[in-house]
């Protein structure tokens, strides 16, 4: 499979203009603008193969949208290069736009005052879609996303979930090779999120459409994207399968022991005490491969053990503790 | 090319359809704007009657100028005003980004998807004034004259669109452009009058960096056979070329600003 998206040491530095109030402030800003540099993306590299589904995760301000904007031809990188389908998106914006689909969760491509179907017709003209192919694609989208009941309703009357489904359909009508989604599930309820996730996973599998989506919601990634790219503060933190994130972040398993009576201080080789309350003790286990039996047998003989358990930290928790450590 | 024209046509159709959903508000807009302009023109008429003329312009001549100015302006503004006045907002909340991810020219897309039907009364008022004054004035309405009138109206319309385009483009770089439209209309009002009533410095400004004189005074003077100060013999040519020239400049400004576009962090 070929590489269809490449980022090579990409950085984006914005000169954020300090805004001064009032007309005099505006004029002063025109003549002598004061700016502060903001490093939104710093030295990020990755490559994505055709057919992959990649989740781009990170907290607010991490630089996710900025990366999407560089890949879709809205912004040029400050340094480094991005290539999408062999092109530099800003240099060949129109050619790039023909072959990609873009959905911004917070905005819409649909015509607000008109029925959804009018916007779809417009897409046919914008992307110069062959009428037969258009009809086929449209029917498929309407069926898969269950758009039938509101195709003739003005967009402003749709619920957020309906609108998002229509927006995603619109971005796919021309059969793009890559679909970029910036927070496609933001603001949706559980059911609507589920519909969107199932659909995206299916499109990726059945049509082979490459998907790259940004999100705050780990579940989006668990259900759609085998591969995770994680960023924070503009930098790449992790790139790989979701399941190896835990190890890569050095997240430790936790051993919890419950005793009949207070056992006093307890030492177990290869496990670090991290907390105690009454008859409970908690440890972090250094070694990934060690079994529960192995750990228990390291207890001094005769300790009044009642129960023992070993916890895998949830991914969510791993990420949370990671961010908290960075903030501190 | 055919596909591009089809797209533009489709955009105008959809835009008109959306606007016509609320016919009542459209008609009310026509009426209120019509009354607004008619009132302004009536007060000019009153002043003119009191003093017998304005810088050597009599009523039918001035009426022709008023009609020409509002018609030419409306012709340009219907393709540009609404969208470019909102450039600041479109840029700020990321709507403009949505245009850039489509395989379209963003300027054309804005122009044709934002065509505005609000100018009905401008056109009606402009036509009535031009016809009434044109009949009263002792003019030779042959084919050449009509062609010159149409070309100068086109030029005035292009000039209007070009200026709005250039002002809107500032939003790409500054993140704001709204305030420029306020300044624009302060000067625009001046383009209703024969520019000879202003002092020389202002006349010069209105012929150069703020070319409002080409929206009315210059082309109408040429059509009515009145002398044009400063420009002299170049006036007939400039009456028709001012629009295309400013359009070229505006296109250059638009591209230069768009190249520097960095979005605004949404
Ligand atoms: N056009 C811009 N001009 C100036 N600064 C910007 C611009 N766009 C983004 N930024 C800044 O760059 C940083 C990254 O922004 P970005 O929108 O890419 O973050 P994000 O990961 O998408 O965040 P969120 O989860 O809130 O959407 C932020 O500090 C933001 O303020
Ligand atoms: Mg974002």
Topology:
The complex is a heterodimer of chains A (328) and B (266).
Chain A: E1 3-17, H1 22-31, E2 35-49, E3 53-57, H2 64-71, E4 79-84, H3 93-99, E5 100-104, H4 116-126, H5 131-144, H6 160-172, E6 178-182, H7 190-206, E7 210-215, H8 218-224, E8 227-232, E9 235-241, H9 245-248, E10 253-259, E11 271-277, E12 280-285, H10 292-296, E13 305-311, H11 315-327
Parallel strand pairs in A: 3-7, 3-8, 5-6, 6-7
Antiparallel strand pairs in A: 1-2, 1-4, 8-9, 10-12, 10-13, 11-12
Chain B: H1 2-20, H2 23-51, H3 59-85, H4 87-92, H5 95-100, H6 106-113, H7 120-136, H8 143-174, H9 178-188, H10 200-207, H11 217-224, H12 235-259
The complex binds adenosine-5'-triphosphate and magnesium ion.
Name of the CATH first level of the largest domain in chain A: Alpha Beta
Strand content of chain B: under 5%
CATH topology of the largest domain in chain A: Rossmann fold
The distinct bound ligands, ions and cofactors come out as: adenosine-5'-triphosphate, magnesium ion
Whole-angstrom Rg of chain A:
25 Å
Q: What best-fitting shape of chain B do the alpha-carbon axes yield?
A: globular
Structural class of chain B: mainly alpha
Which assembly state applies to the chains in this document?
heterodimer
Strand percentage of chain A lies at 25-35%
Give the structural class of chain A.
alpha/beta
Q: What is the first-to-last residue Cα distance of chain A? A: 42 Å
Query: Between the first and last Cα atoms of chain B, what is the distance in angstroms?
Result: 34 Å
Largest sheet of chain B: none
Largest interface: A-B, 38 and 27 residues
Following the backbone from N to C, one meets helices and strands of chain A in this order, namely EHEEHEHEHHHEHEHEEHEEEHEH
Mean residue pLDDT of chain B: 93
Counting H and I runs of at least 4 residues, what is the number of helices of chain B? 12
